[in-house]
Design a protein that fits this description.
heterodimer; A: 6-stranded parallel β-sheet; 4-stranded antiparallel β-sheet; B: 4-stranded antiparallel β-sheet
Amino acid sequence: MTQVMKGVRVLEVAQFTFVPAAGAILADWGADIIKIEHPVRGDTQRGFINMGGIPVDPNRNPLMEHPNRGKRSVGIDISNPLGQELLYDIAKTSDVFLTNYLPSVRQKNKFDFEHIRKANPKIVYARGSAYGDKGAERDVGGFDGTAFWSRSGVGYAMSPAELEGPLSQGIMAFGDSIGGMFIAGGISAALFNRERTGEGVELDVSLLSSAWWAAGANIAQGLETGAMTRNAMPTSGGSARNPFMGNFRTSDGGTINFCIISPTGLIRDTFEHLGIPDAASDPRFADVRALIDNSKAASDLVVKAIGSKPFAYWRQHLKTMKGQWAPIQSLLDLTNDAQALANDMIVELEGDNGKPFKVVRGPVQFNHEPLKTTRAPQASEHTETFLMEIGIEWDRIEKLKAAGAIA
Amino acid sequence: MKAGTKLKSAVCDTEVMVIRAANTVVDCGGVPMAEERPAERKPVNPAFAEGTKIGKRYVDDAGTIELLCVKPGQGSLSIAGVALKLKDAKPLPASD
């Protein structure tokens, strides 16, 4: 398998999903990720009892496997001076330092930029934060539910004004997983720069900036016009200006989404697929300008047409339609979607008790090759084997253990 | 046994790294482990057949010994007939 990051070592002092997800992406790409965990407690996400209200099996924990597959775990107490010294020794062998600890914690435990740079002057130092590493709130923590979804304005924009309140994020680690990919992209660019110039940079990605980038087109419009749109309440029908833009209910309660933004050349094909070819000859709908002016009348025809047949019919029948459309399906429906499977979007890991554990592959695929990777590590699984690999003698390992600096 | 060395099971694929050593004999599947695997496998004692899990650490009650499983197998670990226990991470409880 192609491993574009082979030979790169990332020292990850992070927990939860946002920043570890960056490590997972780089691990998928072939990097050697050394995940530092608390020697007794491990990553806080190991303690999740419920996820989305569903109980979590600690030996088959989606919140550990998704953001930590392909890594090794080394248990170090980073508040212990001997543990810090060991961290510097590992930093000397690493290309990237990756962390989401708050500035005050990085200072207190001496693994802030200047400490790690002193150990390795060429290391790329990557930080993930809630609100950014500058400004009055740089030392304030956050999750995607707070920074990415709530404060950013994304949750507000997603929620129709008619609802009693804003929708919640609804998908666990949604903003974290998106933002983690952004960090991985930044690290890749920083490594490319280091290859060219010999210099390591420091880089920051916040959950807030991740959300703002994802909402960037709307925000630019808002800054320009002062107007900000919000989601509309669900209906069956086209938009006020385009009858081929919207969700349409099938006869059995399913939903088909039409997204024919630019209908030129597609009007007849669309009406034909809907089983109402005569509409294409109606002067009210015959060209795009007229269609936009008579959107409501055309939308009523589409609603009636889609509503006359079941979901399964449309899923099959619309496959030859030229305009863009999609069935509304669940995340779980996608696991049986032939197209998703043809693109190797599911990866099997070795799971507890011999039963495979399935995770989603990262969004980038190299050379059309399916991803092969390993399960997430047990807490501190690789402490001794990794330390010996980088040349640390057993005598020192014993001393570190006696001092409580390692697990 | 010596810390940093590996012990192999006589009954299955289990292999452990000695993290904390003690002057005692560790059994896997009810049969003593050693640095070399015997030419022929011995049968697993059904009383010690719960298996070992890769990446897990095993300790005795007194905390005198610690073994890290580097290869899993069908036998389970014991000392003088007393099963060793999993040394799991003790994460703080969290929920959404």
